[in-house]
Amino acid sequence: MDIRLGKKLSIAAIAILIPWMIKAQDTQAPLELTLDKAIQIALSENPTVKVADVEIQKKKYAKKSAQSSLYPQIDAVGQYTRTIKKQVMYMDDMDKAFNINDMLQPVFAGIEETFKASVPNYVEGTLNNNIIANTPPPVSSEEGITVGRDNNWTGGFNLTWPVVVPTLWKSLELSSLDVELAVENARSSKINMVNSVRKAYYGVLLAKEAVHVYQENYDNAVLNFENIRSKFQQGIVSEFDLIRADVNAKNIKPNLIQAENAYNLATLSLKALMGIDMDRKISVAGTLFDYEQSLYVELLNIDTTLVNNSDLKQFDIQNKQVKKTLEIYKAQYLPTISISGNYIYMSMNNDFKFGDYQWTPYSTVGLSISIPIFDGFKKANDIRQTKASLLQMKWQREDIVRNLELAINNNLNNMTNYVEQVLSTKDVYAQAQKGYEISRKLYDTGMGTLLDVNIAQVGLMQARLALTQAIYNFLASKADLDKTLGIEIKQ
User: Once rounded to an integer, what is the mean pLDDT over residues 243-251?
Assistant: First the structure.
């Protein structure tokens, strides 16, 4: 009974805590974002930027791996060979070479004389005859000599050291350019990320302003409907005005819903670029009007040089790589020198009694030189092909520069047009706001119609949206121009 009661209490506690925990998550304070903070988070959390940074480390490791070829290489080696059938050696005139009687005849003659002088009753020639009788016949040239043993063991160390290898030296310079290119690729990724985050941030501000405009317009329409309904109940206005006010308020509602959906989509896009959880609530600080005063200053202070353009920098590094490749091909005509050496222990036996083995060391040191003479004109054709690639890249660079200059001029023209739009729509917005106030007063005094009020309200809403759109367009074009110029946002 006590166990059942404990289970019921546990279930009741969980049932109470779960809604509280969910509510606590829902009431979590949203992440306050400024443009600088959004960029900072994106540069530290976005996977694209992380991948580019890791690529730099990979290229550095590859460079160190290539540098290891400059150092001596030492290997421990060992080998066991079982002889199935031993080798037989044949030598011309081998029977003469191995005739012991002929080889030792002077020695036997000396011993013979000693025996005659010192041994009593010695019969001359006895010693020589006994030696000849007990000496095996000489080996025939047709039989040969069997060499080697059943088990052959070797073990030791080998050393190789490239001393003069021109192609390797040039390859190391090429590896350094790989690292430089990876660094520039990472910088390009960050510039592209900053551009995307800036435009996404401005997009959230634009969507938020649209929601604010439609919400304010809808609230005004509802308030206007309530006022007209009150006047209708008092018999001051007609039913037609009441119906028109109701229809006007309901027509604005879908635009408000659409603006809210656009705002939610814009915030999701910004969170995706920043690399944060999609469920995390964010609050974007400021409005597009905060950037209005800086538009004119930014338009006047623009340096349009391409010295920092990332695409052009990457192309120039690639051009250097092709030039280094050309140098590698030319270096293949030069000789290479390397040092080699070994220290080996060797043992040959007919059994597996390792304790009785006798190990004999031997060592060698060598210097080798390789001078290329003829390869079927391969190197010459490789050089011609690389020179052709360099000529292509020269023309490609000219085309890239022209396209970049065209993009810069296009962005500058757009920014100038958008500044003019901001100035004109700002005046239109001021006039629309004044016209809306006049129409409201005329309608309240009975000198105007509700249609005039609605038209003035729509004009005010359109003027404000056009103003914010012009500011956004300028900021987006400025972000694209900064991307083209390779301007980095300092954090």
Answer: 81
